[in-house]
Please model this.
Amino acid sequence: MLAIQGLTKIFPAPAGEVVALRDIRLEIGPGRLVTFIGPSGCGKSTLLKIAAGLDASYEGSITLDGRPIEGPSVEKGVIFQEPRLFPWWTVEKNIAANASLRDAAVRRRVGELIELVRLKGFEKAYPSELSGGMAQRVAIARALLRRPKVLLLDEPFGALDAFTRAHMQEVLLDIWQSDRTTMLFVTHDLDEAVFLGQQVVIMNPRPGHIRRVVSVDLPYPRQRTGAPFQEIRGVVLREFEKVEEAPVPDPGAGI
Ligand SMILES: Nc1ncnc2c1ncn2[C@@H]1O[C@H](COP(=O)(O)OP(=O)(O)OP(=O)(O)O)[C@@H](O)[C@H]1O
Model:
């Protein structure tokens, strides 16, 4: 269980402090897939970084299975918009990273992951030989190597074309369904948020806070063109429009 209580994050800035997150409260049970959506600057990446243990200066509490998150650990896998692969390493070495491929258990796990992310046959390829979607699948496999309890994805498909993106969403759902890793997935894309998430967390900027959490009680695989999907998409869209229309406070107020 990932439990967030009263989480507030303030960045000092020359023109006054920036309240990137204010009083975030959220509980995400094991194996859940939760998407986060909101306009630029609403604190989505900041929240993910804190959950990843990459930023430990915050107020409030964030715990994973009861233990405070204070730094990076193998319990948390992180995936960014760019795959951040080592160009001089093969696919399998990028997945194993610091673990040795001479170790049979590591080789077995890397093999399983290559199957899972549908890269069989590309074990010895280098990143320059991969498409954007394939490279991002390597990054996902690498993040899963040590069986993290939670996978944190910050717009992982944001740089991909629409076709590849739709394919990657299906790959990710396959992974989640076979592995049941808890996933927090940040996106700008409303369809993606509703297609993937069991819950969609809609965030508001200035200061970043949760506006509403919408449950998506639709079975997987979801049909984007179906009426139930469109209905929930409409609910999220209406909330999202309210977020966009929210008045911008005087920048002098520092929030
Ligand atoms: N290192 C930093 N120093 C100062 N302010 C920061 C820093 N990082 C983020 N911020 C501010 O905190 C707020 C939240 O930023 P964050 O990047 O988390 O938003 P976001 O919702 O992920 O935006 P985007 O969708 O554009 O990536 C913004 O106002 C941003 O300018």
